[in-house]
Amino acid sequence: MITRRCLLKRSGRVLALAAFPSLALPRAGTQAWEFLKEGDVISVIAPSSPIDNPQERYAKIRAYFARTPFKVHIPDDLIEPTVPLDEANTIAKRASFVHEAFASDAKAIWAIGGGGWGASMLRALMRYPRPHKVKPILGYSDVTALHLYANAYLGIPSIHSVVLGINGDISPGWNHNGIDTALALLSGATPVVRYRFRPLNATARHKTAASARIVGGNSLLVSALNGAPGLTLDSRNAFVFLESVADDPGRFSRKLMGLTYSALIRDCAGVIFGDVIAQGGKENPPAIQEQFDDIVQRFADQFAADKIVLKADNLFGHGPVNLPLPLNTAASFHRDGPIVTGSIWANRQA
C-alpha cells in the first residue's frame, strides 16, 4: 500500500500545476489535471451496477484512505438498487452524482464498481452543462461508458483502472490488484507508466517508434456506442485499446469485425488488445483460448495489416491483473527487438 509519507515524498518532485478555469482543452504537452496533494478529495460514483454489501465496502474504502494523504467522499444515497433491473441507482441519480462530482472541489472521480447499465445514463449526463473542471475518471469494464464520455464528449483524459469497491485492498476477486498503483498516478508519484507489449503483425515488428494516445476500453461498450453522436472515439493518431469479458469467441469476433469496418479501426494508428475473457473470474478453457488467440491474430494479419497491433499479456482487463492505463494522454512506443515498450503519461494532454 502507498503510505502518506511515501506519496508526499515522491510527489514532492512534481511541479505545481495551474488550475483550469474552464473545460477549454489544455495545450498539447501540458498537464490536463493537477496531481493530487495532501488533503485532496476523491469523489466516489456508482454509474453502473450495485456492489454487494455497500456499507461494508464504504467503511473499508474510508479506512484505506485514512492511511493515505487523501480523502474520499461517498454520498450516503450513492447505491439504492433499482427493481427489476438492479442498477446502482436510477438513471437520474447516477447521472447527477457524476455531474456533482465534476462540480465539487474533489480532484478525481473513481467508480466503485462496474457491471452494467452505465450507457443508459449518458443521455441524462450529457444534458447537464459541460463541466468547468478537468478531472480524471477511474474505473474499467462498464465504466468504459464514462471513459467515452470523458475522452470523446469532453475531450479530456481518464484512467482505465481497478474500481474502488472491488480490488485487492477492499474486496478481492479474481482480479486482485490493489488501489496503490492507480493512486500513484493520481498523486504524481508515478507520472509515467511503462508497459511491455508483444507485437502481433509485421507492421508492429518493423516499426521502431510511434507517438500516439490511447483510447478505448471494454469492447462491448466501445462497439455499442461506436457511431453514437458525441460518444464515438476519434481514433486518428491513437491506439485503440480493447479488452473483453462475457463474450464467447463468436460474439467477440462479430464485435471486432464491426469495429474493423468502421472509421474507428480504419483511421487508428494501431490496436492494443488486453485480456479477452469468456467468463469473468475464470481462466479461459484451452479450446476457447485458442479461438480467441486465432481471432486476434487473424485480425492483426488480415484485417489490420497496415496497423501496429500489440498484445498486452496479463496487464489490463478482467484477468488476474488489471494495472492502470491512462487514456487520451500523450504516449510513445519504442520497439527493442521482439518487445514494444509503451510510455504513457498520467495527465499530459496529447
From TrEMBL:
GO biological process: proteolysis
Database matches in InterPro entries: Carboxypeptidase_A_C_sf, Class_I_gatase-like, LdcA_N, Peptidase_S66_N, Peptidase_S66C, S66_fam, TAT_signal
One Pfam family hit: Peptidase_S66
SUPFAM superfamilies assigned to the protein according to its UniProt record, in alphabetical order: Class I glutamine amidotransferase-like, LD-carboxypeptidase A C-terminal domain-like
Record's keyword terms, sorted: Carboxypeptidase, Hydrolase, Protease, Serine protease, Signal
Entry keyword annotation includes Cell inner membrane: no
Source domain of life: Bacteria
GO molecular function: carboxypeptidase activity; serine-type peptidase activity
The LD-carboxypeptidase N-terminal domain, residue ranges: 42-160
Family classification: Belongs to the peptidase S66 family.
Protein name as annotated: LD-carboxypeptidase
